[in-house]
User: Fold these one by one.
Assistant:
Number 1:
Amino acid sequence: MSILVVGSVAFDSVATPFGKAEEVLGGSATYFSTSASFFTDVNLVAVVGEDFPKQHIDFLQERSIDLSGLTFAAGKTFRWSGEYGYDLNEAKTLDTQLNVFANFCPKLPEQYLNADYVFLGNIDPELQLEVLKQVVRPKVVACDTMNFWIEGKREALITTLKYVDILLINDAEVRQLADEPNIVKAAHKVLAMGPKTLVVKRGEYGATMFTEHGIFSAPAYPLEAVFDPTGAGDTFAGGFMGYLASVGKYTDAAMRQAIIFGSVMASFNVEAFSLDRMRTLEFAEVQERYRKFQLLTEFGGID
């Protein structure tokens, strides 16, 4: 089954202790779509400016990402600039230029209205809700958000969460949203807001899933070289949702497997700047790393 994703397509300028990249392809919807496209068809809704080059369009189309919902507006494409220290879990934002993204108002093409799987990228929760009003009867709705919206548009976000099945955010955002320092207590408070599943992205420490059935936690895949963590969370979400859509199941077992696939995709993404590693990635490599992940977390019973 295909996935509908609504979010940002951007140019990123990133510096890490291991190098830097200027004006490279980025954006939450871009990372998500590229990752999810390894598992299923993706329909992308976003806005870019007149300066968005054909080479990026070609790359997305080569990944079989449907761009019928990509709008070209007069002006410049959204730009973000940031840097990382040796703590690669947190980026320092140097500059944000919303440009055409400031007036983004998602309008879904008619062929997207019956989407079964929907991912609402990190945008204004009021816009997220507007997207959901356009979709007919989605089977699974997943959502991302950030501290900016939790602080500035809390009530709108809580309203949107009532219509969301899966919320994917980091541990600091969970604590902020729940106003609770203990992550387990915070998770239960967030689940009470509407989502049936909460997936907590924890960077180099992995991911933890909370549902009414219990808790599942998986480590991050250990890597010798991490060049650029930008987009890792969106890449994780793309692998997670892409796998769920590919198997057409929303069960506890399927979500546990989806978390591992999400972690696998994120582990590849951080090996190079922007989407450079994803450009050369083969699905056989994804499957092989999934198998290594199984060995990494496997343990026997009590003798």
Note: The chain has a mean pLDDT of 95.
Number 2:
Amino acid sequence: MTDSKLTIQELETYLWKAAINLRNKIDAGDYKVYIFPLLFYKRICDIYDEEYKNALTESKGKKDYATSQFVHNFQIPDGVHWNDLRNTSKNIGDKLQKNLRSIEKANKKRLIGIFGDTEWANKDVLSDETLKNLIEDFSSINLSTKTVPDDLMGTGYEYLVKQFADDSGHTAAEFYTNRTVVTLMSKILAPEEGESIYDPTCGSGGMLLEAVNFVKRKGNPMTLKLFGQEKNTTTSGIAKMNLLLHGFQDAEIKRGDTLSEPLFLDETGSLRKFDVILANPPYSISKWNQKAWGQDPFGRNILGTPPKGKADYAFIQHILASLSEKGRAAILLPHGVLFRDGENELRENLVKSDKLECVIGLGSDLFYNSSMPSCIMILNNNKKWKKKILLIDASDQTSKLDNMTFLSDSNIDSIFKNWSEFRVKKGISFIADENMIKQKQYSLNIKLYIKKLSKSKNEINEILVEWKSFSQNTLQSISKIILDVEAIKN
């Protein structure tokens, strides 16, 4: 087992090697259910050993001091250390399951439920041999903070999240949002040191961490207060692990249905307020308690009751009701919320509330297993431009690589520039007031306000010239590579 500091490439190779051991044994969408708990288990045991060793040196060999609770970040009870699991040869899944529950129990305040509800003891899914191989792969590297500092561990964890999303396909959207879109959302909201940041449907915690990354570029992200709620048991555990592995020991992730049981409340039982909210709620869910929304005990029914088959405006209202006095939010939503029948009154009330600051129409194919376009709604309790809404058509601001659609740095910069300038640009952006929106029956369909400019003949010719030049350069590069390879062979 190596004890030298790893590079990010070495860490990523190590993590993915462990994951691909599960190929042809379980569905790719379930990799995360097994790999993340094992990774976290190994990490906290290696840190425990590191803390023990340091305390032993500090106390000049006093074992009682080195094993005392206040020395360790997490408690590892006797008999449930990673090495105890590694020395198990039979019924490994049963031993693993008991170990994880013991660790949760010993760290109730921060780790209860973190390992999820995976059936480790089910040998029809994971044989002793498969588990043994997984454990040995994880055992090949020391995951202490000396070998893998928090920032590196966090980066490796996010790498796995992305890899699992790419590999799993059909379950990816449940816990992963295209990070380039989240980068744009964070840039627009511009979270600051000391602010509270909340995601009511937090998935794996990626939106919270992207906000952290934004603050990190100009200040101290450890001053942030992070909060998230997630309905899925496994995914909420993954989010907790993600934030802990990034070094956010005080981040609060709670498991539950945000619409039926919001869990972040103040001392009076009212909804807690947050400075920054980022969210990508599940699109247009049909199974939700619409009947109860009309008399919501938390007072979230401020725009009206959404249609039974589409809960999007329920999430929008929950977010509106959760904003602090200086609060602002970015919500990723299906494009249909801008114009669907049955939601006209909700849109009217949203516009009249003067909390909607901007609507950004995004391009298609930005999300796993869905080609439908989406939009970002920007809400703000302190709008600079009162009684006005900025509409941006960014449907052409996408890039492609290896069949993946994303927002490049230049795409993000272009959209952000249009947002920050807050002005009318022909074919790109428009500023609408309430009277104008009223005339359009409170539809926010961007096409009603912004007409795409057709490219002129000169522009088309310029694009063709650029494409031909690019093609020629590519062919020349390929020819050079072939000649170099032939020279090496000879």
Note: Residues 457-489 form the longest helix (33 residues).
Number 3:
Amino acid sequence: MRILTLILGVICLAEVLTDAFQTIILPRRASGKFRVSKLFTTATWIPWRGIASRMRDTRRRESFLSYFGPLSLLLLVVVWAAGLIVGFALLDHAIGSPFTDTHSIGPWETDLYVSGTTLFTLGLGDVVPLTVLSRFFIALEAGTGLAFVAGVIGYLPVLYSAFSRREVSIILLDARAGSPPTALELLRRHAGPAGALALQTLLVEWERWSAELLESHISYPQLCFFRSQHDNQSWLSALVAILDTCALLIATVEGDAARQAQLTFIMARHAVLDLAHIFSPKGIGTGPDRLPPDSVQNICQQLADAGFTLCAGNASLDRLRELRGMYEPQAFQLGRVLMQGLPPFYPEAGKRSNWTTIAGLRSQTEASLLSPEQRNAVAVTEAATEETHSF
């Protein structure tokens, strides 16, 4: 019986320490099907998501879901600590509970008490070990407790630093692609000679952002459950909007930005595929068609009106469909698991944004510098553009 208890204690400690090491310290994807953190996250996220799915109010549901990431992280630390306490208590119990306990609360209860006070280095002194082996276990557990606390303290700032860097770029995308971000709006706001250079710079930044997202969220999958500040923003919708933009540039638009779009597309797709493999290794998601054929023609017309040179013909539409098939199934699967919706390709009809208001004021400033004939020509062009932009 004591041998079995000793084996159980060693297994418990090995599982907890290995999982904590892979999660906190090891800067790569954790391996193993029966990890403590994976089992805990799955067991808690499924009922949490089930409760959220029954909430009809969107804001209330998003607020409820936003608690899961930080709260599950804290509870995971508690689970690790409980596993260490039980593991060392099993070792003490296997060697016969050699302690003097003035309160005589029972051998197993004493073992748990000694293990708990030792792990958290309380050093109360009301229970004294009597053998060399029991003293060795207490010293080992005290050192493990210090290392565990230090690891957790160092783990949290790294996690929140990665979260902060992720969210800054998502917030900046609001002014460049709307809220929620859409590929059409991003391209329209970067039309013209000055916008072309800004578009390439933006794609370079999002190539690096995708690489950082891949590195941080693979190492710390718990970050995927951390939701953005606003209900219509998320890291998944931002990532998919960039992929949509790159797909349009690669398949239908001529220009220098297409080369950088290929690089950004490869990195962003890599992030989607790897993260989808973590949360659903065998699942492929399906969802509604985000870009019906009639909408494709409308988008192409708006891009042409904005000044983009397009590749005409059905071949470009086939290329766009093929590119979408490289990331949409995995993105739908991620969205289903994490309860995050994918963005549309184009903004809602009649929705007015801050960009439209500011752009209108700037147009008035530019119009005041034109002659009356030039103003009339600009007014006619803007009226024609407004008719085309309405879906």
Note: Residues 387-391 have pLDDT under 50 and may be disordered.
